[in-house]
Write a structure and sequence with these properties.
With 98 residues, the chain is of the alpha+beta class. The chain is built from three helices and four strands. The chain has helices at residues 6-20, 29-34, 55-60; strands at 48-53, 69-76, 83-87, 90-97. It has a four-stranded antiparallel barrel. Strand 3 (83-87) and strand 4 form a beta hairpin. The protein is globular. The termini are far apart.
């Protein structure tokens, strides 16, 4: 069974294991490498969230439009700290989630 969401789910699984699973020494793999905790907000895969679009999208928005939009959490990119959000119009990137 192939589905377009499977590669993203696999990538997010790896990110989750590296950033949030606490090992016997009391630290995550991310803490062992970076010597600090991850400050990225996180949600459960498939959870409904509010997100703020990236600056390029916000510039196109009118003043009457709400600043936060609803979406489904699909994971995040480890290198850029961008969140991947599923919307009715497709997958978008965001930095701020609630």
């Amino acid at each position: 069974m192939k589905h377009v969401i499977i590669p993203g789910l696999l990538e997010w699984t790896g990110v989750t294991l590296n950033r949030y699973v606490v090992h016997a020494n009391g630290k995550t793999a991310y803490q062992n490498i970076m010597t600090k905790r991850s400050k990225r907000p996180v949600a459960a895969f498939g959870e409904k969230i509010l997100y703020s679009p990236l600056k390029t999208e916000r510039m196109k928005m009118g003043k009457e439009e709400p600043k936060l939009r609803e979406g489904i959490w699909l994971g995040g990119k480890m290198r850029s700290d961008e969140a991947l959000i599923g919307t009715e119009s497709g997958v978008v990137k965001a930095r701020t989630i609630r």
